[in-house]
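Posting this for the archive.
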Amino acid sequence: MSARLAPPVSRRVLVVEDLPDSRTSLQDLLQVALGVEVDTAPDGVRGLELLAEREYALVITDLRMPKASGMRVLREVQDRGLGCQVVVVTGHGSVREAVEAMRLGAYDFLQKPVDPEKLILLVDRVLRERAPLASAG
């Protein structure tokens, strides 16, 4: 008989956003509304460093940032097989970019300004979908 160990299920969210006010607003919203742990990164490079250090259920990343774009963050999550979901947000997105993000495995693609209620529902859905992993095995 072989036991299958489920990976630990994190309720931690990583927000990768270069605009300080947006980064803080997203962090506060998710912590207050859902009680989740939220780490933040001011750019894709720092976001990738945090992804190497900790397990996340979800990454919410801006598309256009200095140093490393949201698409690069998305590609790295997929290439590393990290198992977390990625939501890409942007104020300057095109249909082409949205299609590309979804093709690369993004969970969703949102336009700024993001509707807080929609974001809360989306994050809650991601966390609920991951919850069965805790009892698998």
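The chain has one domain: 12-135. The domain at 12-135 is CATH 3.40.50.2300 (Rossmann fold).
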